[in-house]
Amino acid sequence: MNGCRILVLLLAVVPACAAQDTEARSDAAAVPPLVATTNGINCQNLATKDAGLDLIAKFCEFALTYRHQLPDFIVQQTTTFRGTHPATVVTAQVTFRKGMEHYSYLTLNGKPLTPESSLSRDVGFRSAGEFGSLLVDLFTLPGAVEFKFRKASAVGDVPVSIYEFHLPQDKNTFWSLRDGNGRAWKPEFRGEVWLEQKTGRPLREEIEPVHLPAECQIESAKTTTDYAMTPVKEVGTFLLPVKSESKVCGRSSGSETALGLILSDPTLASLDAPARCTTNVLVFHDYRKFAATSRVLPGFSEP
């Protein structure tokens, strides 16, 4: 095999997120909604230090309580991987229950994906962070991520405020990037959040590592996740992820690239795609109420 394999696992902070989610659940009953002090984080301090961050304070409160506001549901996930080869499509059923995601019924190009399937060792599914940790991570360590208002805009007819954020390398103790050689990096990160002006709810988040060292096999990577008020059948309407697009580029145009969805508990998809850049587009659709099913089996009498 020519070249090298680049394996992107950005922001792999599973233990930290898991611990924070557990504590947030216990705090949820002790504090009123939107007064979040999880892990000692007081969101109102953001606005106290800078009046221009009042909307960020609302966003912080929303993010820290987000998982615990969501109902149990099932949603279909379709991920399309594009490189120089024909597109590869992986589907899965995602069950969100008690604040955690579980994946089942995977298919690869329309065929069921089983442990015996080809590429089964190269294609794995876990949480990609869209259902909460992607948002919570911005406030994991108070003051580590710096926010700055950039401009006002609109998503459709909804007014939004766009804020830049920045995590300096010397303050990055929790977001990491690992390349195909297994080397881990904690680089500088930057991004944007698009917040609904009335509520502080996020409608878009973009994030990317910057100033990667020359010895890192990854030249650039970026993820954009879109949120929207979305109906969950038989339950109601909630702010939920509807689309996430990730792109990674290797330093060698002849290298074999494997793209992983990024930001916490990474979804890993390693495909033979000898392209300098690879993109995956993940779409969530058909949200519906989670309902446990049971089956009554006939009894058997002793002979």
Textual characterization of the structure:
With 303 residues, the protein is mainly beta. It has one domain. Helix content is 14%, strand content 42%. The strands form three sheets. The protein has an eleven-stranded antiparallel sheet, with helices on one face. Strands 1-15-16-6 form a four-stranded mixed sheet, with no helix packed on it. A two-stranded antiparallel sheet has the order 9-10. A hairpin with a 7-residue loop joins β12 (202-210) and β13 (218-232). α1 packs across α3. The radius of gyration is 20 Å and the shape is globular. Mean pLDDT is 74; it is low at 1-36, 119-127, 253-275 and 299-303.
Class from secondary-structure proportions: mainly beta
Compressed to H and E, one letter per element, the order equals EHHHEEEEEHEEEEEEEEEEE
Average pLDDT reading? 74
Share of helical residues: 10-25%
> What is the rounded distance between the termini?
62 Å
Structural descriptors:
4 helices, 303 residues, disordered C terminus, four-stranded mixed sheet, mainly beta
Structure, briefly:
The protein is mainly beta and 303 residues long. Helix content is 14%, strand content 42%. The strands form three sheets. An eleven-stranded antiparallel beta sheet has the order 5-4-3-2-17-14-13-12-11-8-7, with helices on one face.
